[in-house]
Amino acid sequence: MVDREEHLRRLLPLVRRIARRVARLVGGADYDDLVGDGSVGLIRAVDSYDPRFGVTLEQYARRVVSGAMLNGIRRLDPVSERVRRTLREAERERYALATERGALPAMHEMEQRLPGLKRARTEAHRGTPVSIDAPLPVGERFELGAADDPQNVAADRAELRGVHAAIAALPPRERRLLVAHYFAGHSLRTLSRDMNVSPQRVSQLHLIAIERMRRGLAANV
User: Fold this and answer.
1) Which percentage of the chain shows pLDDT scores above 70?
2) Fewest beta carbons less than 10 Å away: which of 61, 66, 108, 184?
C-alpha cells in the first residue's frame, strides 16, 4: 500500500506545473509563494482523499491545489472579494447592454443603474497600487504637451463617436464579436466557443468586421 509520504512526493511535480501555469496567467503572482500554498493544498488533498469520490487522487489533488493557490492570491489582494464581485457583475451587465446597443454604455450610466458600483470602483481604485511601469486605469490620462488642448480633446471625442457609430452599423453577429473582444476583453478563442464556431471562422469574422468598419470610417471622413 502506498503511504502518505510517497503520494506527496509523487504529486509534488503536479504542484509545480500548476504554479507555473498560474504564474503565467496572473500578473504579479510569485512562483515560490504559489508552490508553498499549493503544497499545503496537496497535503490537505492527500489527507482528505476518499476513493468513493469517484475520481483519482491526482484529479482531486489538482482541484484542491489550484484552489489553495487562488486563495493565496486573494489574500494578497488589497481589494475585497465583495468589491471584485460587484465590478465583475457590473462588467457583465455593461457588456450585455453594449451587445444590445452596439456601443459601450458610459460608466456614469452604469453607476446610476447599479447603486453600489460607484463605491466599489472607488475602493478598487484606492486599493490598487500604481506603478510607473504600468498603464493607468481605463479612462484616466496623464500626458504632457498639447494632448489636453480643447481642440485635440474635441477631435479625440469626435473620432471615438465615429468608431462607436461604425460598430453600431455592423451586422449583429460582427458587432457582438467586436464589442466582446475589444471592450469586454474576451479572447477570440473564447468567443469561438461562445459562438459555437471554429477559431478559424471567428478570425474570419473578426477580419471582415474590421474591414467593414474601416470602409465605414473612410466614407465619413
Assistant:
1) 78
2) 108
Rounded to an integer, what distance in angstroms lies between the CA atom of residue 177 and that of residue 187? Answer: 10
- Neighbouring CB atoms inside 10 A of 45's CB total 25
Which cell goes with 211? 474591414
* Segment 151-179, tens digit of pLDDT: 555 556 667 777 777 888 888 888 888 88
| Strand, coil or helix: 42 | helix
* CATH class of the domain at 153-221: mainly alpha
| Long-range Cβ contacts of 75-78 (<8 Å, 24+ apart) | 77/127, 78/127, 78/128, 78/129
Mark 179-211 as b/e (b = at least 16 C-beta within 10 Å). Answer: bbbebbebeeeebbeebeeeeeebeebbeebee
DSSP string of 75-108? HH-SS-HHHHHHHHHHHHHHHHHHHHHSSPPPHH
* 40 contacts 68 by C-beta, under 8 angstroms: yes
CATH classification code of 4-76: 1.10.1740.10
Query: If you search the block for the grid coordinates 452604469, which residue do you land on?
Result: 110
